[in-house]
Amino acid sequence: MGLGFSILEGPEIEYDYYNFTALNHPPEHPARLPQDTFYLAESVLLRTHTSPMQVRAMEAQEPPIYIVVPGRVYRPDTPDATHVPTFWQLEGLAIDEDITLADLQGVLLQFARQMFGEETRVRLRPGYFPFTEPSVEVDVSCFRCGGTGWEGSQRCGTCKGEAWIEILGSGMVDPNVLDYVKGSGYDNERVQGFAFGMGIERIASIVHRVPDLRMLYENDLRLLEQFGAGV
Q1: Count of H helices and E strands in the chain?
Q2: What are the chain's domains?
Q3: pLDDT tens over the chain, length 231 residues
Q4: Which residues is 67 bridged to in the sheet?
Q5: Which of these, 44, 45, 50, lies nearest to 76 by C-alpha position?
Q6: What is the pTM for the complete model shown?
């Protein structure tokens, strides 16, 4: 909100069109297969990300648009220390004239310093997501070891000696996505923007050193009472 983003929420039960097709995931796209599940009807499913609200919001509002979308999402993941089939995500979208990758980096740097400390640095690495081009993975310098990879003579347990921690995926919105909302004023020759998405549990587990995401859902009072959430 301090950067001018509005907060929106959307339906957890979503249409195939908004969850996949309008986000550059046509039925034959290979990136669709790992998430193409949890259908309630032929074209209705439990959303796999909060990204459908990108298209819904652009349909309802002409540019410029700056939004973040928190919400619960569903994936066919086998539970383990770093994966759970139901989790919370925060999606961000900014579309305006003259938006660049540098604007994305600046927003994420501001977020990282608010969350992890003022000395935090961010690093963008090439990645791939169907609805962004170019796509980047985002790392932050480890706030436990100061980005050195070491705590004293021991390898840092938070970043595992890597000095960087991956926190989210992002990129510039693919022009194909804007084509789906061209009728609402999103001419990809005139406007452009960025999107990012992060797992809220992942951020919490990094900050609070929770070693297994499943612990956040087990209702163990020994964990909950550490955060003032007792009985």
Answers
A1: 6, 12
A2: 6-227 (3.30.930.10)
A3: 899 999 999 999 999 999 999 999 888 888 777 787 899 999 999 999 999 999 999 999 999 999 999 999 999 888 898 889 999 999 999 999 999 999 999 999 999 999 999 999 999 999 999 999 999 999 999 988 989 999 888 999 889 899 999 999 999 999 999 999 999 999 999 999 999 999 999 999 988 888 899 999 998 888 888 876 544
A4: 6, 93
A5: 45
A6: 0.91
